[in-house]
Amino acid sequence: MSNDAYSEGDLRKTGMALKHDREWDYELDRIVDAIEERDATTVGLQFPEGLKRRAPAVADDLRALTEDVTFMISGQPCYGACDLDTFLMRRSDVFVHFGHSPMKESEKIIYVPLFSNVDPFPILEDAVDELQEGEVGLVTTAQHMNRFGEMVDWLEERGYEVQTRRGDERLTHEGQVLGCNYASADLPADQVLYVGGGKFHPLGLAMEHPEKTVVIADPVNNVVTIADTEKFMKQRFGAVHRAMDARTWGVIFCTKIGQGRWEQAEKILSENDDAYLVTMDEVTPDRLRNFDFDAFVNTGCPRITTDDGPRFHKPMLTPGEYEIAVGNKPLEELSFDTFHGTW
Amino acid sequence: MSNDAYSEGDLRKTGMALKHDREWDYELDRIVDAIEERDATTVGLQFPEGLKRRAPAVADDLRALTEDVTFMISGQPCYGACDLDTFLMRRSDVFVHFGHSPMKESEKIIYVPLFSNVDPFPILEDAVDELQEGEVGLVTTAQHMNRFGEMVDWLEERGYEVQTRRGDERLTHEGQVLGCNYASADLPADQVLYVGGGKFHPLGLAMEHPEKTVVIADPVNNVVTIADTEKFMKQRFGAVHRAMDARTWGVIFCTKIGQGRWEQAEKILSENDDAYLVTMDEVTPDRLRNFDFDAFVNTGCPRITTDDGPRFHKPMLTPGEYEIAVGNKPLEELSFDTFHGTW
């Protein structure tokens, strides 16, 4: 991602950008225990983008607590649970992934969730002004999960009938959303309260549930907003329309854990002789620029498609949008692309 | 690499950018033979950046010659022999890497060299005007190796005493240079004739051999120039000077095949408590921006350091330059970083 073109989905514009200089609990004791238990001599540490600058201090603390251990910091991009650095994982005796819920379980991996210490209740006070009485769905992101029960209680005390659910098996916690999965908002309520930083998650949530009002309570930037998908939908319709003239298609298969939708890619290939499979880990505009396809369909992370879409040199569609562009489905079926179930 | 900031080492500014629309021999028969011999159902195809746009046509030709084979095109960045897409290789029954000499040998990998069909002799006519009589070293890149013998003969017919050698085990062919290895120019002659496109290789060659005159005969862009390292050296001295104030260091270990200089990285870590190991495959300014180190030392591809150096937000040094910056060596020892031997 280039420095001068932050997109809507860029974590650097979200709570992860650390507007408040929060302290996190890195659970050093748990890591040290694992190191000792396994006689580890190499330990890999992976941080999300917004926390990479904390890596040296965490490594220092761990060095002070251990002996003869080489700590290796992952320099791979990390925006979510999918971005597990499998190379470093293989090369480490113990591998620590900070800030995301588990995507792949392994003896070797320690997931440290990094809960936010920002108090969500002041902004909830503001958010209730935007809510109708009665039923409300409540969702949040991994780093606010530690206060989820309290938030439910807080709303119930104020007379709301709070609805929550654990989404599907892709989600670890009740009420949790991912950038690619909003199954925890599949609730009867007509309104959903999203508590968390940034636009990344709530925009996806609103796209997935266009029939609901999505109220965004952002405790990090201290603002309440209502999700507005109109600009976003216009962009998506624009991309689909431009792709309708495409003859050749690059079908992107993402090689990251949790992003490989092989059946979708294979189906497109089997039905379209002018479709070509392109495999890659990071899907970026620079990497695709040298390919001479008329359009792309991305079977990997849906947020790359929708959030970074305008930065690609050719139309970049989700698999559902592709079906519309090639005439298999009517334009009215345009919807947000999400990952459900396992991977 | 962002679109608006091509660096000196960017292949898109070299012969690989296909100023002449050359035809290449993709050796389809050899590939089809391998597919049949191994009953392959999945075939991976990897092209250098400048040839990625040819990928669909090559896949089409192969599809016409085979049955029930899924062709997968690598979308990973590919600038050299180090950029082997090991993920796609593991997922393919047959894996074809176009345009570079072998970096790793495997039953499964077919290397297709892609020799240039540009005639080098017209530009050699011009180049001899810049050469002194007598001894001359001759070097070229992988894609002109097919005419190397003829070039030697051509120069000898004109009275030159032509010196050539195969470099070290990193190099496949006599007279071949890589962006990171100029051992084939370790010759007694005071002048070296480099035949090939772009600035990428000859600049490294001139840096490695500052005592020699390096004449560049570029048959692709049809120009003859003399390599000038002055601007380049100023940049390197500038980076070293800026890094002299650094307290914390990010020590980059590149995970690509052929780029892992673990001993160098480990040595720096063992001697400097303020040095932290960062592992990654692609080393780009974007990926390092979120790390809060005062300076970086790159043990991976030396061309990333020297060619892309000014684009990083903090000084980026070679291991040799690091030794100078921390005071272990005098400034006079600044030299070009190359990879010798095996990997």
TrEMBL record, chains A, B:
Keywords: 4Fe-4S, Iron, Iron-sulfur, Metal-binding, S-adenosyl-L-methionine, Transferase. It comes from the Archaea. Its cofactor is [4Fe-4S] cluster. Gene3D superfamilies: Diphthamide synthesis DPH1/DPH2 domain 1, Diphthamide synthesis DPH1/DPH2 domain 2, Diphthamide synthesis DPH1/DPH2 domain 3. Its EC number is 2.5.1.108. Catalyzes the first step of diphthamide biosynthesis, i.e. the transfer of the 3-amino-3-carboxypropyl group from S-adenosyl-L-methionine (SAM) to the C2 position of the imidazole ring of the target histidine residue in translation elongation factor 2 (EF-2). This is 2-(3-amino-3-carboxypropyl)histidine synthase. It comes from Salinigranum rubrum. The lineage of its organism: Archaea, Methanobacteriati, Methanobacteriota, Stenosarchaea group, Halobacteria. The gene is dph2.
